[in-house]
Amino acid sequence: MTALAPATSTPARIRPRRTWAGVLIGVALPVLAVASLFIGVSEVSPAALLEGGPDGDAASLLLLSRVPRTVSAVLVGASLAIAGLIMQMLVRNRFVEPGTTGVTEFATLGMLVSLVLWPGMPVFGKMGVAAIFGLVGTWVFLRVIRQVPVRQLVLVPLVGIMLGGIVGAVTAFVAYRLDLLQSLSQWSLGSFATIMQGRYEYVWIAAVMVVVAWVAADRFSVIGLGEEFAVNLGLDYRRVVAIGMVVIAVITAAVLVTAGMIPFLGLVVPNIVSLIIGDNVRRSIPWVAGLGAVFVLACDILARTLRFPYEIPLGVVVGIVGAGLFLWLLLRRGSRAH
Amino acid sequence: MTLKPTRPLLAAPIALAAAVALVGCATAGDAGTDAAEETTDATVSFSWDRNIAGEDEDPEYEATTVEVPVDPETIVVFDIASLDTIGALGGDVAGAPLENVPGYLEGYLSDDAFNAGTLFEADLIEIESHQPDLIVIGGRSAGLWEDLNEIAPTVDLSLTGGFLETLERNTTFLGEVLGAEDEAAAAIVELEAGIAQAQAVTAEAGSGLGVMVTGGELRALAPAAGEGAREARGGLIYDVFGVAPVVDDITAATHGEPVSFEFLLEHDPDVLWVVDRDAATGAEDAQPAAEVLDNEIVQQTTAYADDRIVYLDPVAWYIVFGGIDTTQLMIDDVLAIAE
């Protein structure tokens, strides 16, 4: 923080903070990922791995259980945060994410419908149904938002939460009538406890969506400047919005079938990143993905260790940590406005 | 006769007035059924500590006694275990939450049985229109007492104390009500012998772990350790059937503690007792738990290698748990590992 020429004072003030944050994410991600590999009920330590032993239990557990769990934590965190970022660009509002716009609730309804109508359906099919419902949800939300005359900052997520509330009520009612309420709450409460090989692979589809988002990043940046501006720049506005909707819906559905609902993530992570490096989507995508992954990894490690050898549902941990961070963001914004 | 025995002075005149009213009715009523009415005048009294606090508040108990007519004609039951016992003792039930009556107990409903609501909620208008003589509630429906007791004498046969004590208390009481004391006594003797036999089997079987599978997740069930009531259902496998828990520090919780597959492998019980919650309540032919447990980590466990993953009848163990036929089903589930 040495004194610099006035002309460069703004970037100079940001840069050290950026470097600092970048290094933190860059270090935390591999450290947490390695820790995640070696934390668990069974003995899987680097030493046990080296010994190999007559049965090679540690190595097989590492592959069967630890690697899938770590990979899904990373991918879920990264993709959900990206889904939040894209949503924020599409709606031009910092307070939206799939969980505050009804998309998650629509996808959950889709899961329930597939569970009831086709109980034997493979997970891939369930995810497809959930994604289609999520897509409908995104579309409905965007339509409704268009009709709202005053685009106040807080009004948009409020409308979304209301929409989610209605769909959530329908889901709860159906589940109640069919005595599935407890199962519903069980799989909608995010958790990686039973993640293992063969039960997590669908998060790779979410990872593909992250790549799509990356490729289309610049377009989302332009979309974030408004429809008129985007059209004037010669952008096919509707197509970019459609790509964004698909990315959001598929990520939401993939995360839902593997881990369940994870609140606040898509809201908090892009906001923190935007505070650090601004709103350029191409530049912020790796940051958002990295920070999202770090966030979920850390919460999952907490979920595994706080009540060892039992687990606390991840959704609970993320909810508490995320709500705290969100509050901090809000208060911080308020203080800056003064 | 009196609901609150703390007020004997008030109760006496009320009882007198009631007696006068009854006599008045009897003389005014049709004379042809006099003999039948004679027997229904006899009552059995049932006393329990009723929880008068709301569902999520600290329990607050009030001693409650209800006089129940002997040989009641129209019985409405919300407690499925009591439906089981009433049926097994030769009675039949006129109204129940029909959607929650499992297939193996449907025969105990009268042919024109009406739907009385759900396990949690009563259809008061429907019940009132059938003018029941006795209403039995318990467990999930315990909070309905005040509303239902206005319609007809209502008793709460919820679990109190241990499973066996409750089974014995309820069976004896319902036996008296139905005039089937001998059958009730015989059933108790038979069930106790069956449970002793099951305990002998589990004592040989080594350590065990009860897990509930729901929504694709695993939950370790805990011994109730005297907690009774709601906590008991997860712990029945240990508390009643004598399974030696492979871990003894699981906190008693209605739906168990979330665990990973690694937890199963690490603690490696000799027998894994599985309650498939989704099969109990969801699609009838689905066995989602088997799918969840069909993986390479579970396949490394002793229970898998010895073919000792036992799927318990989910309806019996999770929904009903209690009642004569159901307890026999539970005994058979446990005895199955002896073959």
TrEMBL record, chain A:
Organism: Agromyces rhizosphaerae
Entry GO MF terms: transmembrane transporter activity
Name of the protein described by the UniProt record: Iron ABC transporter permease
UniProt-annotated location(s): Cell membrane
Topology class, membrane: Multi-pass membrane protein
PANTHER family (alphabetical): FERRIC ENTEROBACTIN TRANSPORT SYSTEM PERMEASE PROTEIN, PETROBACTIN IMPORT SYSTEM PERMEASE PROTEIN YCLN
InterPro entries reported in the protein's UniProt record: ABC_BtuC-like, ABC_transptr_permease_BtuC
GO BP, sorted A to Z: siderophore-iron import into cell
UniProt-listed Pfam families: FecCD
Transmembrane residue ranges: 20-41, 71-91, 103-121, 127-146, 153-176, 202-225, 237-255, 261-278, 285-306, 312-331
Family: Belongs to the binding-protein-dependent transport system permease family. FecCD subfamily.
Keyword Coiled coil annotated: no
Sorted UniProt keywords: Cell membrane, Membrane, Transmembrane, Transmembrane helix, Transport
One cellular component term from this protein's GO annotations in UniProt: plasma membrane
Automatic annotation (TrEMBL), chain B:
UniProt name for this protein: Iron ABC transporter substrate-binding protein
InterPro entries (alphabetical): ABC_transptr_periplasmic_BD, Bact_iron-sidero_bind, FatB
Single Gene Ontology BP annotation: iron coordination entity transport
Family, per entry: Belongs to the bacterial solute-binding protein 8 family.
UniProt-listed PROSITE patterns: FE_B12_PBP, PROKAR_LIPOPROTEIN
Stretches assigned to the Fe/B12 periplasmic-binding domain: 74-339
Gene3D superfamilies, A to Z: Nitrogenase molybdenum iron protein domain
Any single Gene Ontology cellular-component annotation: outer membrane-bounded periplasmic space
Subcellular location: Cell envelope
Cleaved signal peptide residues: 1-28
Keywords per UniProt: Signal, Transport
Lineage: superkingdom: Bacteria
The keyword Signal is assigned to this record: yes
